[in-house]
Structures are given as structure tokens and as C-alpha cells.
């Protein structure tokens, strides 16, 4: 696979060994990525979260903090991922009462030489897993799905917006 400049994208060095991609020649630009995930649950679990009555406390507040913390630790979790100076992380939650689901929207911004898609994906997934963890005693059947990058801007590969 190649980028728009025709340069081969790879995490392997000349001898075929795993290596971190050298981004030192790339210019620093403002980069932003948004990722989404969804957690579906039983209506009673959704109601507990909506009313703020979960036994473990403020589920969405804790999930927001967990997502922010996770974005900052992405390079510790994903092999060969560059550590980035994250400028901002925001997490939003959209309730879908009809489906007993919560959509998690994570946006991460940096000024650097590589993008923040992995950080946004990590933030959204960890926020969803935190909701699961805080509510699993009442609903072990929750489902986390739909994890995806929905928007990206900045960098040589250009902007992206999911349909």
C-alpha cells in the first residue's frame, strides 16, 4: 500500500523486521480525528445510566475520564504507535433511548508529524469498555460495536469523512 506521494507505507525495515515508521521528515501540522463506538444494553440498564443511579456512580463521567486517559496512553498500548503530544481530547455521549444504546464520540487533536486516529479509536473503545465494566453486574449482555474512524483532518493523506 502507498500513500498519496507513492511512498510505501510499512512497519518493516529493510531486513523485514518490525520497526516504527520514521516520521522525522514529515512537517508538523494540526491533525484531528474523530472515532465512534456504540454500546447497546437492556432498557433497564440504559435507564439506570440515564437517571444516574448506577451503583458504581457517574457512569458517563467515569467513561469520559477513562477515554481521555486512554488516548494519552495509546503509544503504550498499540505496538509501533508513535507517542504524540495530544493538545485536546473530547468525549461526547449520545443516548439512543429507542435502541437502549449510547454512542460514544471521541475527538483528539495534536500538532505533530503523524495522525491521531489510533488515539481517537482508543478513547472511544475504552470509554465503551468502562461503561460495560461499571454496569456488568446488572447486564452482562451489553454489546460494544461500530468502532470506527468517522473523520480525520490534517497530514499528507488529506481529510476523510465517513459516509
Walkthrough of the structure:
Helix 2 (59-72) packs antiparallel against helix 4. It is built from four helices and five strands; from the N terminus they run βαααββαββ. The radius of gyration is 18 Å and the shape is elongated. Residues 1-6 have low confidence and may be disordered. It is an alpha+beta fold and 163 residues long.
Q: Kindly report the average pLDDT value.
A: 92
What is the element string, with H for helices and E for strands?
A: EHHHEEHEE
Unreliable stretches covering 5 or more consecutive residues: 1-6
User: Sheet with the most strands?
Assistant: 5 strands, antiparallel
Q: Could you tell me the radius of gyration in angstroms?
A: 18 Å
User: Structural class per helix/strand content?
Assistant: alpha+beta
Give the strand line-up of the largest sheet. Answer: 2-3-1-4-5
The amount of helix comes to 25-40%
Number of helices: 4
- First-to-last CA distance: 22 Å
Strand content: 25-35%
Globally, the shape reads: elongated
Beta strands, count: 5
Topology diagram in text:
Layout: E1 29-40, H1 43-51, H2 59-72, H3 74-77, E2 86-96, E3 101-112, H4 117-135, E4 143-153, E5 160-161
Antiparallel strand pairs: 1-3, 1-4, 2-3, 4-5
Features:
five-stranded antiparallel β-sheet; 5 strands; 4 helices; 29% strand; alpha+beta; 163 residues; elongated; 28% helix; disordered N terminus
Question: What can be said about this structure in brief?
Answer:
By secondary structure, the chain is α+β, with helices and mostly antiparallel strands.
Amino acid at each position: 500500500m502507498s500513500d498519496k506521494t507513492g511512498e510505501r507505507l510499512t512497519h518493516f525495515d529493510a531486513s523485514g523486521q518490525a520497526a516504527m515508521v520514521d516520521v522525522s521528515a514529515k512537517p508538523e501540522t494540526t491533525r484531528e480525528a474523530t472515532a465512534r463506538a456504540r454500546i447497546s444494553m437492556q432498557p433497564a440498564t440504559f435507564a439506570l445510566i440515564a437517571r444516574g443511579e448506577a451503583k458504581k456512580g457517574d457512569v458517563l463521567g467515569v467513561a469520559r475520564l477513562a477515554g481521555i486517559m486512554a488516548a494519552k496512553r495509546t503509544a503504550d498500548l498499540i505496538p509501533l504507535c508513535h507517542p504524540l503530544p495530544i493538545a485536546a481530547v473530547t468525549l461526547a455521549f449520545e443516548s439512543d433511548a429507542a435502541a437502549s444504546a449510547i454512542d460514544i464520540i471521541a475527538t483528539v487533536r495534536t500538532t505533530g508529524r503523524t495522525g491521531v486516529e489510533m488515539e481517537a479509536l482508543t478513547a472511544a473503545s475504552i470509554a465503551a469498555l468502562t461503561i460495560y465494566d461499571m454496569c456488568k453486574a446488572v447486564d452482562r449482555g451489553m454489546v460494544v460495536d461500530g468502532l470506527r474512524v468517522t473523520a480525520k483532518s490534517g497530514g499528507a493523506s488529506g481529510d476523510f469523512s465517513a459516509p
